[in-house]
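Hi R.,

Here's the chain you asked about this morning:
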Amino acid sequence: MSSDPKPGTTPGALGAQLGTAVRVLSNPGSQQRLVRGVMAGGKSILGTLNHVARQLWLQITGFVFLCFGVIGTGAFVREYRAYTNGNIPIGKPILAFCFSAMFLYFGMNSFWRARKKNS
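And the predicted structure, written out as tokens:
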């Protein structure tokens, strides 16, 4: 076994880096720059994560609303058939249509908003 340092490193490099860190942190002006840099980096990362979370939220809620709209459309078809056979009054098919139309609109609107946020 040889005690040669790894290529690209110099003996005492860790101590020199530690000394530099202590010197930077002991200077008040450098501390402010460091804090501002960390804050700017944090704002950038949180902004990106917020954008991604918002996109995901809009797409998931859009999918759920579209599922409710499709289920409501099936209910509308079933109620309309019952109405044409004369078994129920007109109110139930109208209610099923309004429900399905509302949720289909909400689902499409959510996907539209997610697409607008992306561009």
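The mean pLDDT is 85.

Let me know if you need anything else.
M.
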